Amino acid sequence: MTTTTESESAVSRWGSLGAGMRQYGIMAALVLIVILFQVMTEGRLLQPNNVTSLVQQNAYVLILAVGMLMIIVAGHIDLSVGSVVAAVGGVIGVLMADYHVNPWIAAFLALVVGAAVGAWQGFWVAFVGVPAFIVTLGGMLIFRGVALVLVGYTRAGFDSQFLVISNGGGAGLAGFVGQLDAFTLIVGGLAIAALVYSTLRRRVTSLKRGLERESVGIMVGKLAALVVLIGLATYWIALSALGLPYVLVIVGLVIFLYAWLMSNTVFGRHIYAIGGNLAAAKLSGINTRKVNFWLFVNMGVLCGLAAVVVTSRAGAATAAAGQNYELDAIAACFIGGAAVTGGIGRVSGAIVGALIMGVLNMGLSIMGVDPSWQFIIKGLVLVFAVAFDMLNKRGPAGGH
């Protein structure tokens, strides 16, 4: 009996250690990659203007990765997001260039169209039972065709109010502290305060409920590391000519909202339950069809938001927009620790995975690496990340 108990205890300890390794290892990997490219680019990677460009160029990945994570955790996949972004971008272009619709109304309609597309795909997955892989593969073809029909030629000449969404920043809104933009410093300080508060509140809640929790040392170490990272990012951005990009505010709100939704709501718990064990989820009374339907509606809305960001950044709507966006979002989720089989994954991990992809893109571009080699390197990073996750789950004895 003692031997069995000790064995179970060892397995439990290894499971906790493995979870910690996945959670903190990916953050350490991001830091190491940043340091590596900072050295290899002779300090150019972290120049203030490059940091803001990193955010602007990868905002669409950060947005799509959040929705894709939810899809993957539930045990599905969505191959259509790039085409949906292109199609919704086409709608935006036609509305503003051809019909001179107010840019804010056009942005709202983009979210509505995205939701409608998501509802279409969610219907087939949730209520007809067609696998998401097949539905979204068909959607990838359908909505790429829609984009080609809508944007037979490039639509441009948009209102400056629309262009500022992805190209504007808050430099000077609250003055300057020396060379540092005060607005950026204020937002960075609020972000740090929110992080500390949420971390302490989560620990107090765990203590009250008697739930398993990390040690005080690990919590303080993780919190300190995150505070330092946010502080450094705030400093670099505050030095940039643009200040805090408006698109970063949008992305930050998306991350905060969905991290809360996945961790603190019934809907979030249902997503994890469905991905972890579908049969058990059904037996426990979860309406799996309803959850799956709204997952795809949500993905459509985020595609609409990504379309707004991408179209604003480019200043034009083209049928070729969104190429390989689905691969970027999926890669970000798996690099960030999402399980291929579903049931496991965190919004924070997907965001770190997206940042790793973004740093790789920017670092390799600064170094002048040929685009073909960039694809090879990113592909290898994805394979190694998933392989590490699979090996890590086997435990100390390489369990089966």
In short:
The protein folds into 2 domains: 24-168 and 246-393, Orthogonal Bundle (ABC transporter involved in vitamin B12 uptake, BtuC), CATH 1.10.3470; 170-244, no CATH class. 76% of the residues lie in helices and 2% in strands. It has helices spanning 2-40, 48-73, 81-98, 103-128, 132-150, 160-167, 182-209, 216-239, 246-264, 266-276, 278-283, 288-314, 325-335, 347-366, 371-393, and strands at 155-156, 176-177, 180-181, 316-317.
Structure commentary:
It is a single chain. By secondary structure, the chain is mainly alpha-helical. It folds into two domains: 24-168 and 246-393, Orthogonal Bundle (ABC transporter involved in vitamin B12 uptake, BtuC), CATH 1.10.3470; 170-244, no CATH class. Helices cover 76% and strands 2% of the residues. It contains 15 helices and four strands. It has helices at residues 2-40, 48-73, 81-98, 103-128, 132-150, 160-167, 182-209, 216-239, 246-264, 266-276, 278-283, 288-314, 325-335, 347-366, 371-393; strands at residues 155-156, 176-177, 180-181, 316-317. A two-stranded antiparallel sheet has the order 1-4. α9 crosses α10 (266-276). The radius of gyration is 22 Å and the shape is globular. The relative contact order is 0.19.
